[in-house]
């Protein structure tokens, strides 16, 4: 009997039983749920820096809340989750799921739902009162075919730029200046280039996709950007082409070794005074502070030029796979992820903000307090690079197009044509 066939039998059996129901022995052998021991194998891509610190903090709360459940860390490093997603796809295809796995909220879970690989968690939202503490807009983002398939641990903002004030001063620029358009920002970057410093520090391919999304958001505005995902904005149109020209200029003003760097390494170029700007989500805040930088003095921050008043959102969330070997362990983990204590501990360490609205802002850093306010007051849009705006197949095609354009130096017309094809699926 092959491993795949055995796991298939286990999967079929798991699909027969509902969430939270386990077989119990009768008589003297029966144990209460409080004394039974099990495990929870949790699959994520949080392996270093502030991400690992956040996971460690969340696990500490989990161990306190569920002392009879052994946490099994199944992390896979690299690519902002792209490497982990590939490994996870192999495991799911072999009917060998973990007990829970990380996914970005929104469109990222659609393919799992279509393939019948994750459970509906709507009943847990009711059981734990999560509909009352998560914003209605977030609940809407999480809902697929009238059901909810993941529990978010946090909210992140993708459209942030980090600034080294000393590098800007050397270039004769005001570090606190704001740029209302991408074109104005490009002029500032060109001034930095003349000093011999790197104008814009970038990392590997997904960070370049994130730069593309923020450029499109700045140039097209909220309505135009949202139209890319609902079909009302033409990927082949002149407005998109003009934005892609700006994106091309931004790439030209970035470091030549960008494809060799993980995002913390690119951020370090900024912190160490080798670069003027870095576009990165607000997980950079905790990374910088953990590395000894003082936000507001050593490093400044603002929305990406042209995107003030817009919160480009993503959320890290966790699922319950169909056929999870330890469903009680899965449920315990998900309960901690959604709990107030879990979200506070996790987000204080990771630099994001809680998805829950009942957390006390005063427990968080100055940056996070501002993010909590902005998430409440700003216009919310969904991140492309982090799976909230586009389904995984479309995102994969866009990422491939960006890689060809940035690395293989395909021309602008071919790049736009590839994006049109990606949108059509």
TrEMBL record:
Keywords: Signal, Transport. GO terms for cellular component: cell envelope. Part of a binding-protein-dependent transport system for a sugar. Belongs to the bacterial solute-binding protein 1 family. Residues 1-27 form the signal peptide. SUPFAM superfamilies: Periplasmic binding protein-like II. This is Probable sugar-binding periplasmic protein. It is found in: Cell envelope. InterPro entries: Bact_solute-bd_prot1 (IPR050490), SBP (IPR006059).
